[in-house]
Amino acid sequence: MFQGSMVALVTPMHEDGSVDYPSLQKLIDFHVEQGTDAIVSVGTTGEASTLGFDEHCEVIRETVRMVRGRVPVIGGTGANATNEAIELTRGAMEAGVDACLLVNPYYIKPTQEGLYRHHRAVAEAVPVPQIIYNVPGRTACDMRPETVQRLSETRNIIGVKEATGDIARVHDIRDRCGDGFEIYSGDDATAMEAILAGARGDISVTANVAPQLMHEMCMAALAGERELAEDLNARLEPLHRGLFVESSPIPVKWALHIMGLIGPGIRLPLTLLSEDCHDIVLEALRHAGVQVNV
Questions:
Q1: pLDDT of the residue at 294
Q2: 40 φ, ψ to 5°?
Q3: What is the spatial distance between Cα 47 and Cα 202, in angstroms, rounded to a whole number?
Q4: Coil, helix or strand for 161?
Q5: pLDDT tier at 293 (50, 70, 90 boundaries)?
Q6: Which of 15, 25, 156, 187 could cysteine-pair with 165, CB 3.0–4.6 Å?
């Protein structure tokens, strides 16, 4: 259903922390022009954890409106509580998203059975296509391939965003679930190898700042053109590392700010990028050929 470079879009903010909707429109137009294949609204990179419930729904709603059908929009609607995830997912469906992305419940460390029942409950309550999202480094729980296999039997759970960076797991999920169930990388550093192993694309932080290059790399990998994909990815590798030099989305928001695309706003407990990390991000941007205003 979706493929290629799917940007995990930041949520631009004014210095007082309020959402900057004119800059959101600017970012969306930038991504459409640069070839981004889909936009993920209010995921982890979009500071979902710092937005209130109504704000969360409003940013997704405005993103759908601003995109105007030019590329698919995937709403980030995961939550710690199953009932809240259901309500967020219902709101995103009503806003007109093409699918929803649901991260595993975080902090509480549910069992595999709990993960299965959580995602199944959301899917049964809201008929929109859904992508489940495994990122144990953020959630402190790991959804095992056998649980993904069970969930793949639910009609509107169409795929998984797998962010462990484990290519063997991509093969395992593909073998278990078959070609009709989509796998998306959630780890920029290993996305090329994941796509070459059978993933359909990358839900990407790096795409925020280098959308055309990420699109080209993903398309080359999807076509099985390893040499071209490797050449393109070599230009991106410093960004894959540098944009995580502090907790995401701190570095990527700073990068977008010095690119002149957004203001400096970010919400606590996230803070501005530390000065001793500036050169790391700057060098990575320059390596990828990204123009900056410094």
A1: 79
A2: -100, 120
A3: 19
A4: strand
A5: confident
A6: 187
